Amino acid sequence: MRLVLLVALTxxxxxxxSLLNRAALASGGIDAxxxxxxxxxxxxxxxxxGYALWYALLPRIPGSVAAVAQLTVPVIAMAGGMVFLxxxxxxxxxxxxxxxxxxxxxxxxxxxxxxAA
Length: 117
Fold this sequence. Notes:
Layout: H1 2-27, H2 32-57, H3 63-69, H4 73-85, H5 91-108
């Protein structure tokens, strides 16, 4: 369970960069230099944190799980936009998130092996 939480935290750190930039643009009153500085700093901090966590976790998880876990980043970023920026929850997002997370679950949850007939 601890490993799952650490992977989720890592994917959230990657998504945070997108959220910070969208928040800056949503205010509408930011100049190009400030936006560039924010983008650079938020990218360095959130990506740095994300990569540090990711490479610390990578030796502990199978490659197949690592590959599929990264597919959750867009879903986390969109959900964060809804929570922190007040973006609307749409049927399209709900269906897409269900498909992505369902696919990730099917890929990482161990299924019982089939018995030989």
